[in-house]
Write a structure and sequence with these properties.
The chain has about 140 residues and is mainly beta. The chain has a single domain, classed as OB fold (Dihydrolipoamide Acetyltransferase, E2P) (Beta Barrel), CATH 2.40.50.840. The chain has a five-stranded mixed barrel with strand order 4-5-6-8-7. A hairpin with a 5-residue loop joins strand 7 and strand 8. The structure holds zinc ion (ZN). Zinc ion binds next to loops.
Amino acid sequence: MSHKPVPRPDPISHVYWQRLREGRFSYQSCRACGQCWLPPAPICPRCWATDTEFIDSAGYARLLTWATYHRAYDPAFADSLPYVVGLVELSEGPRLMAGIRCDDPTLLRVGVTLNLELEPRENGFLVPVFVPVLANKREGHAD
Ligand SMILES: [Zn+2]
């Protein structure tokens, strides 16, 4: 297990992190208008209703954009270089920033399919990361 930063749940995100501890990655939804979003918020970002619920995600997403880090701004990530952080869109609609776990970031493309994995952190936390469904070889290379 790494010594990467652990989440700091607050009264708004507590349920989100607790569900992750149980292996359930979920997003927030508005009971008034149906809007879905992440990260957790006290009110619906569309209609400002406070009647919200958490819904389990199927764990499928696509990659919208990303950045590849070649320098660790936190020493805890030094062993992970280069690492990727991306904006992903869940199949249910919400978008979030998350770690993208891949061996070769040069293979990433906009729209690539991503599968959810839960990365263990200290104190029993699980953090959502996404793994791209990629071909095993670089474009233009033969077997
Ligand atoms: Zn709403």
